[in-house]
């Protein structure tokens, strides 16, 4: 602190407590997704107490740091991620400037900057002092939804995401089958889970089938169940196990034509026949399927039966790719940072301006999953509490004329070089994985395995 306390300079704004607190809360709420933030009552109680203490004249130079430390400790006890405190600090700065007007005197600007720096330093020290950063993220009432509720991960405030939420709400009120369309990595399963949760079936089963990783024979038995030769040994199968709930089929075009024909019977007649069974059995389950392929092209290519496409597309949801909702990238980055910082028990809580510009300008063919992978990579490699350009995967910046922010740029690691090669090969063959695998000298299954590990 300087000899001339910034609190004295900012006293006109601090004196307008209600206006300042209201503006601060509004700025914070507009930046943090609902379901992951403290509620309005908690915000007013915690930060209102902070304003009251800062507004009181105090000769003790330790008064501001003590007050800010108590705020950070209270929020940490509630399980609020440090990234949200950083957002709260930014919202406070914006609120001060709004209360005092757009043209601030140099002394006021200096006071805002000084108190802002003290706030960031104090918050970071409190969280870093915790035995485990992960302990600062336990779910609490009014802060985040239950751990087993994935719907809160549908993060974003862009118009495209708002439209998606409306579609999810409408689909939740319906009871028929549903087809979710979207590029790889857009979060189609999360959408399916959100529809399930909003349909009044949240207490019923939500089961998933990923046919691309199973042989057709296994898929048939896994989906419809089977009956033993003597008739008394049965395996229920996913359709029967999901009775009264939802079955999600991830990439429906991976089903064999024979299994697709049996699925049409389920959708149109509400009946199924187990493998080895002699009679049809009634089944009551909502089927939600997804595909990343164009529906008409899939039918024309023979990988999707026309009658199954017709049965599924009575109700559809199209998940927008990340490039159509770039304004959601900062919120997604904040969410992924929080997630991986918890696991790493570290304290990386911010992204440099240059790194964020790079993230905002990237193409993201792998969408949210690729962004998530990039942030995980950055958290694993970053130091000093801030993600820099060179902490991100090299393919995002290497060779694009983007310089690192460290003392020396580094060469890509072997894993990064492999990822760059796979990306370049897929681009060369226009996404044809079979031809790409042959060119790389690996099997198609090996290529799929590498793509899954790379988050593509």
Give an overview in words.
There is one protein chain. By secondary structure, this protein is α/β, with parallel strands linked by helices. It folds into 3 domains: 6-137, Orthogonal Bundle (Globin-like), CATH 1.10.490; 159-322, P-loop containing nucleotide triphosphate hydrolases (Rossmann fold); 324-454, Helicase, Ruva Protein, domain 3 (Orthogonal Bundle). The chain contains 21 helices and 11 strands. The protein has a 5-stranded parallel β-sheet with strand order 2-5-8-1-9, with helices on both faces. The protein has a two-stranded antiparallel ribbon with strand order 3-4. Strands 6-7 form a two-stranded antiparallel sheet. A hairpin with a 6-residue loop joins strand 3 and strand 4. Helix 3 (17-31) crosses helix 4 (40-55), helix 4 (40-55) packs antiparallel against helix 5 and helix 8 (159-173) crosses helix 9 (188-197).
Q: Output the strand order for the largest sheet.
A: 2-5-8-1-9
Total domain units:
3
The largest sheet is: 5 strands, parallel
Q: Average pLDDT across residues?
A: 79
Q: CATH first level of the largest domain: which class?
A: Alpha Beta
Our measurement of the CA-to-CA distance between the termini, rounded to an integer number of angstroms, reads 49 Å
The coarse overall form would be elongated
- Provide the gyration radius in Å: 26 Å
- The CATH superfamily of the largest domain is identified as P-loop containing nucleotide triphosphate hydrolases
Low-confidence stretches: 131-152, 406-411
Question: Percentage of helical residues?
Answer: 40-55%
Category by helix and strand content: alpha/beta
**Share in β-strands:** 5-15%
What does the oligomeric state look like here?
Answer: single chain
The CATH architecture designation of the largest domain is 3-Layer(aba) Sandwich
Looking at the structure, the CATH topology of the largest domain is Rossmann fold
* Number of beta-strand segments: 11
Number of helices: 21
